[in-house]
Design goal:
- The protein has 465 residues and is α+β, with helices and mostly antiparallel strands.
- It has 6 helices and 25 strands.
- The chain has 3 domains: 5-13 and 140-216; 28-124, Tumour Suppressor Smad4 (Sandwich); 219-459, Beta Barrel (Thrombin, subunit H), CATH 2.40.10.
- The chain has a 6-stranded antiparallel beta sheet, with no helix packed on it. Strands 12-13-14-17-16-15 form a 6-stranded antiparallel β-barrel.
- The longest helix has 61 residues, at 156-216.
- The protein is globular.
Length: 465
């Protein structure tokens, strides 16, 4: 950072030492030795390199790399140092099998891993000697008029007059040089100040433009990055399939998030002798049985309570066709951290990704993406509340039977809430025409006031590492 103008003036008036040498940005090479990008090498000559699955990452990994978060880690060059930072990733960052905490120094030849079992790469850069800079003292090359010997044969009076004249002119010259130095320093300081102001305004404008462009292009990125983390919950009995809610993966070992009222529906379906399945978005061959659930302990059955829950899949069992299935889910959605959740405010762009009941296709699930914005954030009493208690996230996105339990994303693709319902919701009684049995269902009007439950209440249900 440049010093303030006053410091520049003081430095210029007392010293003519050369400025400190600027360390050039190194040319970093990342060679992937394990993972989807195996054998590929990526070269960057910039001060920051971001890693993750997000579209704007410098080194972007495909969605199939489930161990990699959307924004996982970054390597930065600070002066002569090369550092790596973990950006609150789900599965951690490692250097030579040592977990990265804070600013972790790197050496050329280190081995990096994104996640304990994630992609591995080697980092390297050329080691160069910094060129030496020689300081030149102007006093060694500037000869003062007072040092020139007078010609021989002059009288003492004439010599004294010459000496006095030389001293007077030398003093004037010194004052002139000092004055010019001060004027030059002030001019440089003013120029630096103006350039700094202009640069700040330019960077602010660029950041605002980037944010606007990022929000505009966020929808396709969110749909693509989370395509394999979205599931339709289905009640099955023989060949009869009935989709009823959305869920999304939050852990690779088979844990999905949804609404608590969806779990209550699961309990009703199981009592009728139905099997509960979770079928992946756009991948119907990846269908697992739901074998367990966990509802938030403060859920009261009312919308004004923590309507969030977890369900667990049986990853060890074969699929409905008897074919062996993966023992690990291919991707998970990333939950927003508490700091980001406490900054939610009206007007922010949001996106939902779920299965509207009217157009559900249980055989070939295809999630529906909706762009919307936050309308307000309140506590469970519909009051403004405080940042730590405002758990109801109101939005303008579509809410209907089937979208319950879907994730509500911010423009960066982080889950800020679990989509719940709306004030237009009402309970109706449905009678099965075959069995004659009746059950209660919740219906919604798309024009209602819609809301979700903030993601920190969901995080309370997850096992702590």
């Amino acid at each position: 950072m440049l010093p303030p103008p006053s410091s520049l003036v003081a430095a210029s008036s007392t010293s003519l030492e050369p400025p400190p040498q600027v360390v050039p940005v190194r040319r970093l090479t990342f060679e992937v030795t394990r993972g989807a990008l195996d054998t590929r090498a990526f070269v960057f000559e910039q001060a920051r390199v971001a890693f993750g699955r997000r579209e704007d990452c410098d080194l972007r990994f495909p969605a199939s790399e489930g161990q990699v978060s959307n924004l996982h880690a970054e390597v930065v060059q600070v002066g002569a140092k090369v550092l790596i930072r973990d950006l609150k990733s789900t599965n951690g960052t490692f250097v030579n099998d040592v977990v990265v905490q804070g600013d972790f120094p790197l050496r050329s030849g280190d081995r990096l891993k994104l996640g304990r079992d994630g992609p591995t790469m080697l980092v390297a850069w050329p080691v160069e000697e910094a060129p030496a800079t020689q300081a030149v003292d102007l006093r060694d090359v500037a000869l003062s008029a007072a040092d020139v010997p007078p010609p021989e044969g002059r009288t003492a009076i004439f010599k004294a007059m010459v000496d006095r004249s030389v001293q007077t002119n030398s003093a004037r010259l010194r004052r002139t040089i000092v004055g010019l130095g001060v004027v030059f320093a002030v001019a440089i300081a003013a120029l630096v100040f103006v350039m700094t102001q202009q640069r700040g305004e330019t960077e602010a404008a660029r950041a605002a433009a980037d944010a606007a462009l990022g929000a505009q292009g966020a929808g396709p990125r969110i749909a693509r990055d989370n395509e394999r983390s979205i599931f339709m919950l289905i009640a099955a009995k023989g060949s009869e399939l009935e989709g009823f809610c959305t869920a999304f993966a939050v852990r690779l070992d088979g844990v999905l998030a949804t609404n608590a009222h969806c779990v209550r529906s699961i309990e009703s379906y199981v009592a009728e002798g139905r099997t509960i399945l979770a079928r992946m978005n756009r991948a119907p061959e990846l269908t697992w049985r739901v074998v367990d659930s966990k509802v938030h302990p403060k859920y009261s059955g009312q919308p004004s309570s923590p309507d969030v829950a977890l369900v667990r899949l049986d990853l060890g069992a074969p699929g409905p066709t008897g074919k062996a299935l993966p023992k690990v889910l291919p991707a998970v959605a990333t939950l927003a951290d508490d700091g980001r959740l406490r900054e939610l405010a009206a007007g922010q762009p949001v996106f939902t990704l779920g299965f509207p009941g009217q157009v559900m296709n249980e055989a070939e699930p295809a999630a529906d993406l909706r762009a919307a914005e936050l309308s307000r954030v309140t506590d469970f009493d519909n009051a403004p509340g405080s940042p730590s208690t405002s758990h109801l996230v109101w939005h303008t996105a579509l809410t209907s039977k089937g979208t319950s339990g879907s994730p509500l994303f911010d423009a960066d693709g982080r889950v800020i809430a679990v989509n719940n319902g709306g004030l237009s919701a009402r309970t109706v009684t449905v009678t099965d025409p075959v069995t004659g049995k009746s059950r209660s269902e919740t219906t919604y009007e798309a024009t209602g006031l819609n809301f979700g439950v903030r993601a920190d209440l969901l995080r309370e249900l997850l096992p702590q590492p």
